[in-house]
Design brief:
2 helices, unfolded protein binding, Prefoldin, Helix Hairpins, chaperone, single chain, protein-folding chaperone binding, 2 strands, mainly alpha, Prefoldin subunit 6
Length: about 140
């Protein structure tokens, strides 16, 4: 009788530890999902900015460099300030480069988090199987 009680306590401790590990793995998985969502939103925003700046670049390509009557204006606060066409093109090119780097960075972060999520899914599955097995053993010992 003494032996059965200690075995039951050990089994319940093992099951409790497995459940704690499972809860921790599920929490990690949810955090990874949140990370993917945040990085996806950042990527979407950067992609929208990229398209906007590509349109600006295309419009600037239509402006003749030597035409003094055509002006390019930049909004600075509440004022429109005339800007040199070459300077405007250079600024847009730098912005495009920066935004493309942001998109790449977001893609890498998403891929990394998804890879970690796949590993976490495998860990969760293993832990669920171990919990189920511990329950079966406990049920068999109870009979």
């Amino acid at each position: 009788m003494e032996m059965q009680f200690s075995e039951k306590v050990a089994q319940s401790d093992t099951e409790r530890q497995l459940r704690e590990q499972l809860d921790h793995a599920v929490t990690d998985f949810r955090n990874l999902q949140k990370e993917v969502n945040v990085n996806s939103r950042k990527r979407l925003q950067a992609t929208q900015q990229l398209h906007e700046n590509e349109m600006v670049q295309n419009e600037l390509a239509l402006v003749d460099q030597d035409d003094d009557e055509t002006g390019v204006y930049k909004l600075v606060g509440p004022c429109l300030v005339k800007q040199d066409i070459a300077e405007a093109r250079a600024n847009v090119a730098k912005r495009l480069e920066f935004i493309q780097n942001e998109v790449s960075r977001s893609d890498a972060a998403i891929a990394s988090a998804e890879q970690k999520m796949t590993a976490a899914e495998g860990e969760i599955t293993k832990l669920q199987q171990r919990v189920a097995k511990a329950k079966q053993i406990a049920a068999a010992a109870a009979q």
